[in-house]
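Incident log, structure service

09:12 report received: a user says their structure output differs between two submissions of the same chain.
09:20 pulled the input from the user's history:
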Amino acid sequence: MITVTDQAKNQAIRLMEEDGKAGYFIRVGVQGGGCSGLMYQLTFDNQKLEGDTNIEDNGVTVVVDKKSYLYLIGTVLDFSGGLNGKGFIFKNPNADRTCGCGESFSV
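09:34 re-ran on a clean worker, output below:
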């Protein structure tokens, strides 16, 4: 399960509308890279792939590929517009170590 905060939901909907992608869903994933070994990915998509997991939370759809789902179980997707940086934040209970910017992690 991935939980989406109100801030992340509102920002995602706003960005999708601005980009002409109203009605799309949030696709999140994990790929190798970054200073801690794994990096988060977040895009807006309208194509579901075989093996994707659909998650409905807080009025939005989040889609995760099969491999990434194992790393993201229990994650909270949030958004910060504060002084420490602006963007989507993954609060991942499975991460043993994260980098200073929060964009990569290791398990």
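09:41 both user submissions now match this output. Likely a transient worker issue. Closing.
09:42 reviewer note: The helical segments are 6-18, 66-72. The beta strands are 3-4, 25-32, 38-45, 53-57, 60-64, 76-80, 87-91, 97-98, 104-106.
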